[in-house]
Design goal:
The chain has 486 residues and is of the alpha/beta class. The chain has a domain of 86 residues. It is 51% helix and 8% strand. It contains 15 helices and 7 strands. β4 and β5 form a beta hairpin. α6 crosses α14, α8 packs antiparallel against α11 and α9 packs antiparallel against α10.
């Protein structure tokens, strides 16, 4: 203890020095504490930045993994040479059924020819290998259908013209083979059946103008240009406009009309292709408008049937009675399920069950028990009232509810009318050939071409619905004169 006392003795003699020393040590300690706190803060920031960098690196690795999987999937798909309408892998069945028709289905065989042009007998007097005698010989019959070499039948047609003083006009004779009166440089024409074949290939079978021209040249020795065929189609379209107008009149008087529309091209974008179809008639219309006026002009204000369509607002209030396509409703529910936190369990399941119950009720004959049928329909309407009246808090549920509530008056129309289906498949099927034609040619180059396309395509589609050959329809209507001699 003596050394401590000796050390503190001078400080006791000078207290001010002791105080200064203590203050200096306190300042040193405070400085050290501040530095330590700053180091701790910097360490925390560094740890947070490190954690953030680790999370960013993990996300980048996940993104890289996802892109790698997508690249591998795309490469596999490219090697498979999948068709453009191939079903996605997620929708493919793990245990697909056996391809082809189900067991017990009637066999599909080529029918026996209605006529025989040549009889050929091929005898077998002896074995073709060793020339030995044969026993138990029997006849085997085959029918071979072959196409003969085709050569156009060319007719040099000389008609006459003269002035009629009574009628005060020039008149001329006509022949049943004539489809045009042009002479001179334009004096070589296709006959009614040849032109009908060209238009059947183009409008009914879906070949482009150039492929149609190639088929006529390669197989029938008929030479014409794609432009010449296009102009011929326009002439035929103008000639058959009355037949097209007759189809429009039939659609307007139908009990059920299906309607749909898609984008079109007439020398540029901005046009629309409309389809109005029944089970026996189809009318195409190319128009610049996509508004309600197109529907009201096509069906007129006194249309008394049921219009079946999708939920495009254009169709709303266009006709008094409508049915909205259930397939589009189910598609909206499916999209909502994909974003729903519970996969659609609860409300979306109830809405889907409501629509499916209505479709099952449609499959039952209402004549069996009319009273019970009506009670079931009213029960569905009451159920729809409870499901669709109150807004939903969940966004996907509210989107579906709002969609169906807006079309509530058109939910069960198909139950009140026997001929009305629940879907708009009729219009979708009739619109598909037009969509394929659009993929090939984009549409039309001129308004005259669009007019001809809508006339001829409507007649071709209607002939297919009525099982009437389009080529026969055209052949009977193209000649300038009847079959009587001029």
């Amino acid at each position: 203890m003596n050394w401590t006392a000796n050390l503190l003795a001078p400080l006791r003699a000078h207290p001010d020095r002791l105080i200064a020393l203590v203050l200096e040590q306190a300042r040193s300690l405070e400085t050290l504490w501040r530095e330590q706190a700053q180091w701790a803060q910097e360490k925390a920031q560094a740890v947070a930045e490190l954690q953030s960098l680790r999370e960013a690196l993990w996300q980048k690795n996940q993104e890289l993994l996802r892109l790698t999987e997508q690249l591998e999937a795309a490469q596999r798909a490219a090697h498979r040479q999948a068709a453009p309408f191939r079903r996605p892998e997620a929708q493919r069945s793990a245990q697909p059924g056996r391809p082809g028709r189900p067991p017990g289905h009637a066999a599909a065989v080529r029918p026996k020819p209605a006529h025989i042009d040549h009889h050929e007998q091929v005898p077998l007097p002896a074995c073709p290998q060793c020339q030995g005698p044969l026993t138990d010989r029997r006849s085997l019959t085959q029918y071979i259908e072959e196409l003969p070499p085709v050569r156009p039948v060319v007719t040099e047609l000389v008609t006459e013209e003269g002035w009629c003083g009574h009628c005060q006009q020039t008149v001329r004779s006509t022949h049943p083979l004539q489809v045009s009166t042009a002479v001179g440089a334009a004096g070589v024409h296709l006959g009614p059946r040849a032109l009908a074949l060209a238009l059947d290939l183009n409008k009914a079978k879906g070949l482009s103008l150039r492929k149609t021209q190639a088929v006529l040249a390669d197989h029938f020795a008929l030479r014409l240009s794609p432009g010449g065929l296009a102009r011929a189609a326009q002439r035929v379209g103008r000639k058959l406009t009355p037949a097209y107008d007759a189809l429009v009149a039939q659609v307007r008087t139908s009990a059920v009309v299906h309607a749909d529309e898609t984008s079109w091209w007439v020398g540029g974008p901005g046009w629309w292709l409309w389809v109005f179809t029944t089970p026996t008639t189809t009318v195409y219309l190319v128009d610049e408008r996509r508004g309600r006026a197109v529907v009201t002009e096509m069906l007129t204000g006194d249309f008394g049937g049921v219009l079946v369509s999708d939920c495009l607002s254009t169709y709303d209030d266009a006709t008094p009675r409508q049915q909205k396509c259930y397939h589009h409703h189910f598609q909206a529910i499916k999209e909502a399920r994909a974003l729903h936190p519970d996969g659609g369990a609860g409300y979306l399941d109830q809405v889907s069950a409501l629509l499916r119950t209505a479709m099952l009720l449609k499959a039952l004959p209402p004549e069996a028990e009319p009273g019970r049928w009506e009670a079931c329909v009213r029960g569905l309407e009451a159920r729809a009232e409870r499901l669709l009246s109150e807004p939903r808090l969940q966004p996907q549920e509210e989107k579906v509810r709002h969609r169906l509530d807006k079309q509530r008056d058109h939910l069960f129309t198909f139950l009140r009318h026997a001929a009305v289906p629940a879907t708009n498949n009729q219009a979708e099927r009739q619109l598909r050939p037009a969509v394929i034609a659009r993929k090939i040619s984009c549409g039309n180059k001129t308004k005259a071409g669009a007019q001809a396309w809508q006339v001829l395509s409507s007649l071709a589609a209607t002939c297919a619905q009525r099982a009437e050959p389009f080529i026969t329809f055209l052949t009977e209507r193209l000649p300038l004169a009847s079959a009587r001699p001029p």
